[in-house]
């Protein structure tokens, strides 16, 4: 990953911040606001000035403390070294509800504050609550369930819990594309951006939950629908306000929440304004890189807002905030001021465009010198019909008048898909020979499945699916895998793919799914802060999956071989891996269900070598000798040592085995391939 390589290069250049008490303490600065708010809500009067002075000094302190362009090295920093950094965030999350409830109690119930003091206190709460989205955002990205739920509760305190769904599952995978309403195109003012962004957040998150439940064959009202949690949290906060202050208090609370959401949307607008991921020839967008978010390096603002200005690295990794990397101009566009300054400027479109648009042009020239015309990317038609990019680009280049038409009414593009248009564009008999047309279409299918859709491309597709833990990775892999298996089966049924071509493609699908799930399990395991072990673990597949001859219903024959210790570390990791692989095999069109207790257990490398020297039978020896390592955890050298063990194994003996040809898929397997595995 780019972020890791960056961290390594920084460490090599001695531009490193070491995790320590001294370096963690500045991140406790945001907690200083809470005693100031308590005093202001309790005493009113001049005490109300304290929180305002605190925030007004931030700009001064930015200039006083200067920039921080050094990074903590994620490759060498252990999870246990981040405890104080995490504690500062957890304390903020704990203090906010208490402070918020106390201030509301003073405003709505105690009644000792004058009307003007109530207004000022509400303004103070609005200022402080801006950090709710920063802390809530950090928490909803974490792998631990309790942290994600705490993040949702914080977001619910300002009436925006659905942000937890929208941000992770919509904004992140679609950032800097027209599919993401949160990524403002160049030339769109904040005031035009705001209503669409707010509406799409709620509608988009609801649609995502509905699709997720539909894919799992569950009703919309199932208890796993996240909106049940959001509703309970919202009812708690609004019920509390109504109980204390009545209907008028609800209006005050709505205004306060609206102000907080408004300030958060300004930050969203600034973070990605004008930045676009280019569309590749495959139709997919390029991977997210640091160039796709604006960066700033002001030290005090990063202390105050938990490294919010390192947003560029946040989109290329799922690091905790102290590990986020700062990228210089060579990798990420830099804002001319801090995020706080730029948020204020965004409210004034003329000044904003004059300042930022030239920087956007410079970013495009720096990172995309091969793109001469960006009008299609900035087109509102592209935002409405991203799948019609090629036609939009053609129109923008050749007919500016028509470009204005489709920008005003993108629905015009749909007429290009109607039969009367497509028949004229590509009439039947385009090659003049029906047999040649069949051969051409088969050739395209074979080229795609045997060459273009490689294992790395499959992994890239799976990586594009947003998940937060191994459970979600399994669900995503099953859904993705089943879609690919069905497509391959239909191609085989129609004769577009031969059986050998289909089994090769199916084996890649299986390997991509397995590797993606195991990588997620490894991340979950590491996130627990378990002390690292020496050596590494090799996960190898046997049988048809290893030979590239997988058919629907293939058995998941896996071996786990470790070298190093302690053994209990690898035993604990393998328990999680086996559980995930069993889940992956359920409702899977390609893999046969793995029985409880399987796949087989863990072996040390020495035990594996002994098994190769003394196999139970010739069949077992052949199966083991054909094993293929598909995933490595820890020391990457375990893969070489595993391969060396296979090379040193005795020669293959097949006294009672059917020939490889007889064991390979035959033409009669085409029907099974199309029908899927028996259940």
Considering DSSP H and I runs of 4 or more, what fraction of the residues is helical? 55-70%
Global mean pLDDT = 86
* Global Rg: 29 Å
Strand tally: 4
Give the low-pLDDT segments.
1-14, 652-672, 674-679
Ends distance: 40 Å
Sequence of strands across the biggest β-sheet: 3-2-1-4
Biggest sheet, open or closed, and with what strands and sense? Answer: 4 strands, mixed
Could you please describe the fold and organization of this structure?
- Helix 3 (about 35-45) runs antiparallel to helix 4 (about 50-65), helix 9 crosses helix 11 (about 245-270) and helix 11 crosses helix 14.
- The protein is mostly helical and about 675 residues long.
- The protein has a 4-stranded mixed β-sheet with strand order 3-2-1-4, sandwiched between helices.
- The two termini are about 40 Å apart.
- About 60% of the residues lie in helices and about 5% in strands.
- It is built from 31 helices and 4 strands.
Map the helices and strands.
Layout: H1 2-12, H2 21-24, H3 33-43, H4 49-65, H5 83-110, H6 115-140, H7 145-156, H8 163-174, H9 190-215, H10 226-245, H11 247-272, H12 299-304, H13 311-314, H14 339-345, H15 349-367, H16 375-378, H17 380-384, H18 389-398, H19 400-408, H20 419-425, H21 434-452, H22 455-463, H23 470-494, H24 499-527, E1 534-541, H25 544-547, E2 558-565, H26 567-585, E3 602-604, H27 605-613, H28 618-625, E4 628-634, H29 637-647, H30 660-663, H31 669-675
Parallel strand pairs: 2-3
Antiparallel strand pairs: 1-2, 1-4
Helix pairs in contact: 3-4, 3-5, 3-6, 5-6, 6-7, 6-11, 8-9, 9-11, 10-11, 11-14, 18-19, 22-24, 23-24, 23-26, 23-31, 24-26, 27-29
């Amino acid at each position: 990953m780019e972020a890791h390589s960056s961290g390594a290069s920084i460490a090599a250049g001695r531009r490193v911040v070491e995790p320590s008490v001294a370096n963690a303490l500045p991140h406790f600065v945001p907690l200083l606001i809470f005693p100031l708010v308590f005093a202001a809500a309790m005493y009113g009067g001049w005490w109300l000035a304290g929180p305002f002075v605190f925030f007004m000094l931030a700009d001064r302190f930015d200039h006083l403390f200067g920039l921080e362009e050094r990074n903590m090295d994620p490759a060498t920093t252990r999870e246990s070294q981040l405890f104080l950094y995490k504690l500062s965030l957890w304390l903020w999350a704990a203090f906010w509800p208490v402070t918020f409830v106390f201030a509301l109690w003073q405003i709505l119930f105690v009644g000792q504050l004058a009307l003007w003091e109530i207004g000022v206190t509400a303004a103070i709460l609005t200022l402080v609550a801006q950090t709710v989205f920063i802390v809530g955002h950090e928490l909803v990205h974490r792998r631990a369930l309790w942290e994600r739920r705490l993040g949702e509760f914080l977001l619910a305190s300002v009436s925006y819990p659905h942000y937890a769904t929208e941000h992770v599952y919509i904004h992140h995978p679609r950032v800097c594309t027209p599919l993401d309403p949160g990524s403002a195109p160049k030339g769109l003012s904040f005031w035009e951006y705001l209503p669409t962004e707010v509406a799409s957040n709620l509608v988009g998150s609801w649609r995502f939950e509905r699709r997720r439940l539909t894919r799992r064959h569950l009703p919309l009202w199932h208890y796993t629908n996240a909106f049940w949690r959001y509703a309970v949290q919202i009812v708690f906060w609004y019920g509390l306000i109504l109980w204390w202050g009545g209907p008028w208090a609800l209006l005050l609370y709505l205004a306060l929440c609206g102000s907080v959401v408004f300030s958060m949307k300004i930050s969203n607008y600034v973070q990605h304004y004008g930045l676009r991921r280019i569309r590749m020839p495959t139709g997919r967008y390029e991977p997210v890189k640091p160039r796709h978010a604006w960066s700033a390096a002001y030290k005090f603002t990063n202390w105050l807002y938990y490294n919010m200005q390192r947003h560029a690295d946040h989109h290329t990794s799922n690091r905790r905030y102290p590990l986020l990397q700062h990228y210089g101009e060579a990798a990420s566009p830099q804002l001319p001021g801090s995020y706080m300054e730029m948020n204020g400027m965004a409210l004034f479109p003329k000044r904003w465009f004059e300042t930022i648009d030239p920087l956007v042009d410079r970013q495009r020239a720096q990172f995309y010198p091969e793109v001469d015309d960006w009008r299609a990317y900035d087109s509102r038609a592209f935002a409405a019909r991203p799948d019609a990019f090629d036609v939009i680009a053609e129109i923008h280049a050749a007919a500016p008048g028509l470009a204005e038409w489709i920008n005003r009414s993108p629905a015009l593009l749909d007429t290009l898909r109607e039969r009367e248009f497509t028949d004229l564009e590509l009439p039947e008999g385009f090659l003049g020979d029906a047999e040649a047309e069949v051969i051409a279409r088969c050739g395209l299918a074979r080229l795609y499945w045997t060459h273009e859709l490689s294992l790395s491309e499959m992994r890239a597709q799976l990586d594009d699916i947003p998940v937060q833990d191994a459970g979600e990775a399994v669900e995503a892999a099953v859904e993705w895998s089943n879609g690919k298996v069905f497509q391959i089966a239909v191609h085989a049924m129609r004769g577009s793919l031969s059986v050998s071509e289909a089994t090769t493609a199916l084996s890649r699908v299986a390997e991509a799914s397995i590797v993606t799930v195991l990588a997620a399990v490894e991340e979950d395991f590491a996130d627990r802060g378990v002390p690292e072990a020496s050596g590494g673990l090799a996960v190898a597949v046997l049988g048809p999956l290893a030979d590239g001859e997988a058919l629907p219903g293939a058995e998941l024959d896996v071996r786990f071989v470790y070298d190093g210790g302690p053994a209990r570390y690898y035993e604990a990791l393998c328990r999680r891996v086996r559980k995930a692989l069993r889940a992956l095999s359920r409702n899977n069109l390609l893999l046969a269900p793995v029985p409880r207790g399987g796949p087989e257990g863990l072996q040390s490398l020495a035990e594996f070598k002994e098994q190769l020297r003394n196999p139970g039978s010739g069949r077992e020896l052949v199966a083991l000798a054909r094993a293929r390592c598909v995933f490595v955890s820890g020391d990457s050298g375990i893969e070489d040592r595993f391969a060396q063990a296979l090379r040193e194994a005795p020669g293959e003996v097949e006294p009672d085995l059917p020939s490889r040809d007889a064991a390979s898929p035959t033409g009669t397997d085409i029907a099974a391939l199309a029908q899927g595995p028996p259940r």
